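Worked example 3. Consider a protein that binds flavin mononucleotide.
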Amino acid sequence: MASSSHAQSVAGGTRFLEAGSGEVILFIHGSAETAEVWLPQLAAFAASHRPLAPDVTAADAVAQLRRLLDDLALASVNVVAQGDGGAIALALAAAHPQRVRRLVTIGFEPGAAVAPRLLCPVLFMPAADDERSVTAALSAVLSERLSRFDNRELRTAFGSFMTGVTIVTTAGVDGQPRGFTANSFTSVSLEPPLLLICIGKAAASVDVFSRAEGFAVNILSEAQKDTSVLFASKRPDKFEAANWRPGPFGNPLIEGSAAWFDCARYQVIDAGDHIILMGHVQAFSYSDANPLGYARGHYITLGLEQAAVNAASSASRTVVGAILESDNRLILLPDPARPDGLVLPEVGRSGAHGSASQLHDLLTREGMDATLGFLFAVFENPESREQCIYYRGEALLHARGRTVLADFEDIPWDRLPDEATRSMLRRYAAERKIGRFKIYSGDHRQGLVKAVD
Ligand SMILES: Cc1cc2nc3c(=O)[nH]c(=O)nc-3n(C[C@H](O)[C@H](O)[C@H](O)COP(=O)(O)O)c2cc1C
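Given these inputs, the predicted complex is written out as structure tokens:
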């Protein structure tokens, strides 16, 4: 059942067969076998992975395999070995622990010689009589049993790192400009001037970017949220819908960006399900536009955060409050001014000048451990001349105390102090359903809070 879809190449002095694309599985055969013994697995895994089967011939097989990985710029791989190829695989993982992600041996008896230094998960599978059961067992192992983390959780944890937002573009190899939104940008070196971005192997343009002579990184400004959404889409007409011009090195520059860097390709590095593109900066420019921010899956506009700070310091009366959730329920407190009335946790209502630190003190006094992650609304109440600033976040309740928890479907609207609070909470309740929050600012009149974007 040999497949014709594999290719044969030579790298680092070693002949190997390969197929597919994506995460690499290195198949190591046993003695008295050749790479061809893995043809059924090459065919079976080509759709989901990049199976790669070398002829392991050198006396020092570990050095031979290391040369092969180096030559193919493969930082780390999954390894599957059969028979006494298992000993080579273990030796490879022991000698180069960073380069073997997971290891599976089939029909290999490790005895007492298992290297204690192995960092990767290892599975010793018994020999199987037929190819199909080998392939089925390997599929299960590679997709599930050795996967250490829940990827959604991992992505959320990575997303705690606040970043800017860029659009990475290239003139391409076929004259067709390509581009995608990326927050994996990192400045790398001043001498020589280097930067990097990571592109997922599932991106439509990954092949073009990995072969292109160069690429440009456009650092987006606050006004370019829509452009970010456009370039994060799969729309084929991204460049027709955007304002851009060719940069000095030929790659598209998006108009209105806070900064741009036009780069020549410096290095392309294989890295798991992504490719690292390192660029050598050929030209760059920047403006004083505020950069767009991104954290935990949401856009952040620093200018507005600053506006809140400025407003708070210039207004004579400032109310600072929070829309806080505990266990998916809204936190309210009794209103000292109205019997049976409820208010959001807030300071400054009594005419005093509220501040974020006073709000923190209030929350602590009321038994809450709150994370005030993001600004939610900034508006001025012209009647009371109060500047109102509300944050949103989560709170842990140490003690129930005076807090009242309300379900979002059942908010006690008539117990809230004014239309401003009701209007803001209606919007909050609607936005939390879709998990996308906007920031509101402007004058507050008749309970209206204006959307910024
Ligand atoms: C804020 C944000 C940041 C992103 N960062 C990256 C990134 O660093 N690398 C990446 O490959 N995709 C990233 N994406 C996803 C790509 O923009 C998206 O997959 C896009 O469709 C790829 O374009 P293409 O498939 O047309 O090539 C990001 C998306 C958003 C909204």
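Take a moment to read the result before moving on. The first strand starts at residue 7 and ends at 11. Residues 444-453 have pLDDT under 50 and may be disordered.
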